[in-house]
Amino acid sequence: MILNAAVDSAIAIAERRIGKPGEQVFAGRPYVMIQRAFLAFKGSSWFVVLSGFVEPVLYLASFGYGLSSLVGPMTSSGDSISYAAFIAPGLLATSAMNGAIYDSTFNVFFKMHHGKVYNAMLATSLGPLDVAMGEIGWALLRGLTYAIGFMIVVAPFGLIPSIWGLLAIPAAVLIAFGFASVGMGVTSYLKDFQQLEWINFIMLPLFLFSGTLYSTDAFPRALQIIIEALPLAQAIALVRDLTLGQVHLGTLWHILYFAVMIVGGLFFTTHRLRSLFQK
Q1: CB within 8 Å of 157: residues ≥ 6 apart
Q2: DSSP summary character for residue 167
Q3: pTM of the predicted model, to two decimals?
Q4: Domain residues of the chain, as ranges?
Q5: For 64-95, how does the pLDDT look when each residue is reduced to its tens digit (9 = 90+)?
Q6: How far apart are CA 247 and CA 269, in angstroms?
Q7: How far apart are CA 97 and CA 176, in angstroms?
Q8: What is the rounded distance in angstroms from the CA atom of residue 57 to the CA atom of residue 59?
Q9: Greatest CA separation for the chain
Q10: pLDDT tens column, 252-272
Q11: Quick check: 167 and 101 in contact, CB under 8 A?
């Protein structure tokens, strides 16, 4: 009886999609994926999520305060700020990237190739866009949690000197959205766990050279141009503008950068899931 009810429900959902735009790719039920992710989180993955919050706090404590007396004050858009205030937004942006990337790559890879989760889901009324948006939605919730927790930690230390800093929280969600959208599509091309090491190989230089811990002004101008085009450099610049209250026209460019990244990533991921599982 339960099985028949589930089948009837799936048929009813599929019938409601008939004639609607995107009926082949979207059923309007990405929340099902988020519910599943939450159950998995309660069961076993809560420690992994918690570690993603602790990591930037440890970096801030060790670098922001451990090296501050050696580095001295920093300059950002002509304003002199403490070294801790300089790296805090960079660590927040990096945390949003890491959470989104690990959710949309390692977790997605296991579900795709070992758990065969997507094969089962896409055999139901769910469409590939439901799956993509559900997985990405969970990554956004993770990014939002990191951002709020990090802000609660750093704000009492005076590291968020501007009221604009409150917008760093939705900015972190935007950053997570962009990285998760692209990361899930890229993961669909990976065939084994060894290839996942390329993710770490790419993320490490992004963290080291995107201006997280020091200003990119230290590099030659030609190299600065390349770095400024990187997504993490754009993310750090966006969060730093907001936390320091240095909002200008360039801030809108950073937002547009991630808007394009999100739209392109969603299209790319949906196309890949459909071609893999709905042949």
Answers
A1: 84
A2: G
A3: 0.83
A4: 24-277
A5: 888 877 888 887 777 788 889 899 999 999 98
A6: 32
A7: 5
A8: 5
A9: 70
A10: 999 999 999 999 998 988 888
A11: no
